[in-house]
Amino acid sequence: MGLPKDDAATLSARWIEGVLLKRDVFSTVERGRFRDESGEVDAVLRRLDQVPIWSYPLARHLFARERRALALARELNVGPKLLWAGRRALVRGFVDGVALHLAKPHGDIAYFRSAKLALRKLHRAGICHNDLAKEQNWLVGRDGRAYLTDFQLAACFSSRSRLFRIAAYEDLRHMLKHKRSYAPQALTPMERKILARKSVVASLWLKTGKKVYQAITRGLFNFTDREGGGRRLVNDAPVLAELIRKNPDVRDTSIVAFADRRTGVGLYAFVEADDVALEKQLRSELASAKGVRPPEHIQVVHALPRDAAGKPRTEILQLVAMNQVDLIEPLITSDLDRAFLKDILESRKNLRDRFNFESSELNSR
User: 14, 24 in Cβ contact below 8 A?
Assistant: First the structure.
């Protein structure tokens, strides 16, 4: 199913293709640049021309919801700004920030204060997001503020009806769940009460609709994790990691998922070892393993970036795998991390779908 001629003409003239962010049965999402009246701006494109025919009606419905919500929220500065919308494609502004589960703003009270303010602005405009339980729909901006993204389930209301109040309450409750995860000491007594009291609709959903939803998304649509790696990341990656660690020259490994234009979802294995030539041996060993497909990319690194507890910082590695290099700088906490991360970036393997988003600050050090 192709794009309508007017959509295709606009994108051909104004869109500069960049990095694929996600592809599923509802849309293809990629980052690139868009030419508007002021020149080229960083932007994100959602298009429906590559979705299956059987999922197109629902995809079209979700697309329409997002288009309407973004149009209403255009000047609120709480999410991406709608730059252009056609019949089967739309372009929204790029928010300079990373998802909540990657940024992990532990103890950042100011962030959650701004998150509450963002919700207040959204609700005053009559918009309820309806999908804020997902950490990837919350962004931590480079300016430290909270931004919302992915408005496919958003609902727009003309009045503060009972349904609106329930949806707004659930938006707030889901935000507070994230605050409880990252800044529990900052919860007020009233916020704790809200967390302890689900709406009747939410309680009914958990008992009935959510089970059906999970059966459909995990079974039919193959959604199994928040990073978008699907069953390959959930099922294949642990098996591959175990096989890689069996090699005596390997100290550790970390496997992340990335969107791939050829296969939909690819796996990228970062292997901590001294011998760069080990990659060829590992690829041969994994190719002979039964029941699991080898990673699309294997990169041997002298050291994996690690947190204070010694665990690999998969949030950084995933951005490397996705070629979202300019988003890494705010996540780097030490000069040591920056030094060997530069080596990882210079030798990264996923060069098929790359774009000039490199951070000059990171690469200049």
Answer: no
